[in-house]
Amino acid sequence: MKASRSSLALPPTIARKRDGGALTDGEIRAVIEGAARGTIPDYQLAALLMAIVWRGLTNRELVTWTRAMVDSGERLEWSTLPGPTVDKHSTGGVGDKISLCLAPLCAAAGLYVPMMAGRALGHTGGTLDKLETIPGFRTALSPAEFRRVLTRAGFVLAGQSARLAPADRVLYALRDATATVESIPLIASSILSKKIAEGTAALVMDVKVGSGAFLPSRAQARALATALIDLGKRLGLRVRAVLSDMDQPLGAAIGNAVEVREAIEVLRGGGPADVRALTVRLGAEMLVLGGRAPDLRAGTRRIEAVIASGAGLERLRLGVRLQGGDVRAIDDPDRLPRARHVQVLAAPRDGVVTHVDAGALGRAATLLGVGRLRKEDRIAPGAAILLAAKAGTRVGRGDPLCTLHYDDGARARAAKPLVQGAFRIGSAAGRARPLVLETLG
Ligand code: URA
After folding, report:
1. Is 45's C-beta closer than 6 angstroms to any atom of ligand 1?
2. To the nearest whole number, what is the mean pLDDT of the chain?
3. Pocket of ligand 1 contains residue 393 by CB under 6 Å
4. Torsion angle of C-alpha atoms 28, 30, 33, 37, degrees rounded to 10
5. Where are the strands (E) in 43-177, listed by range?
6. pLDDT the model gives residue 2
7. Which residues are CB-neighbours of 6 under 8 A, at least 6 positions away?
């Protein structure tokens, strides 16, 4: 392999970080530019990333690193919109369909939500995979289409453009393959560089805590939330972070089409209590951050009003239509794809469900085809786990705990032991964990 000039110059930089030193602004810019242009070999980037996992980045390094990632591509700009832009980003969960109902609700309440979403990653679901179960719905939009949908619907749910923060694409793929994802400065810079490039003025972060989260412990989640708020402040992006429970899945549906269905139920005024409560809470936070509500109480009332009036559902219909989707699937969710087979898993004994392990169910759902084991895998749009019991539910022996929805029997056989192990049944209910653990920022 031919080494470029920048790759020859990199070993002293890697060594300094390895030994706990700080990188200069010039070195950071050269690394990020080289990553985006493909002029630095993967092995040198990977070595530097691992050194950062161990040694971290100072505040100055982190700001320069994030700015350089933003500058590696285009930056969208929304100053001509007649209202404030506010986005929401979740660190990833199981059964987390909140974006699907939250974005249209906030649009109906007066915000502009330029949401760039992701695909299923590891055991966590992906908003784009869910949306693509709506026949015709397009998630790959040109910048002009993105602008048109946002301007008209007040929200847009699309994939990350290759032109925004391209350095993050390269670095994220390398991190995924080299066990270097789990670093707070690398996660914070990855998320915020994309949000700043997307042009949102404010951001509500839903930082997940528990077995289904990337960073399961509350201390790690709090550290990430604090890093995001602090980095946002240094870069002119207002960030508020909500730490929310991901020890058990959100709602009853884990899957792609089934989660679209559950989000539509919320927009129709129904849906599971936890999905609805987190949607309303995050919406209220977004309205306050965007200056459309004076406080959380007023924000809550506003979001509840746009659910009750059907204005949120109407916005979803508009957004789906503008992105090429078949609105009949929103009006009649039975048109969404379904799996061919259904199998009920029953409680092995009488008792109370004390824990439903989100991480285990996320991994089982991936095996069923909800997510991907390899990047090139195709998802199964109708594959799902539908929960009949959650923590606190009293069950008798033989009562359904959940149903598996699948097309391929071998996949169901692989997933079943994980699903069975995810339900803990005891003699008495434990103390319920609150859905929102704390807010910061
Ligand atoms: N999500 C991102 O966008 N980046 C990370 O580094 C981790 C999660």
Report:
1. no
2. 95
3. no
4. -140
5. 86-90, 113-117, 155-159
6. 45
7. 30, 34, 39, 40
97 is catalytic: no
Of 197, 251, 233, which Cα lies nearest the Cα of 69? 197
Question: Terminus-to-terminus CA distance in the chain, angstroms?
Answer: 47
Compute the average pLDDT of residues 47-65: 98
Please name each of the domains of the chain with its CATH number.
5-56 (1.20.970.10), 86-333 (3.40.1030.10), 337-426 (3.90.1170.30)
- Residue 204 has which token pair? 């509500």
Q: Is residue 344 very low, low, confident or very high in pLDDT (cuts 50, 70, 90)?
A: very high
CB 360 within 8 A of CB 211: yes
pTM over 0.70: yes
Task: Single out the catalytic residue among 168, 245, 247, 357.
Answer: 168
Using a 6 Å cutoff on CB, does residue 187 contact ligand 1?
A: yes
In a 10 Å sphere around its CB, with 0-12 CB exposed, 13-18 middle and 19+ buried, how is residue 310 labelled?
A: middle
Which is the closest atom of ligand 1 to the Cα of 194?
3
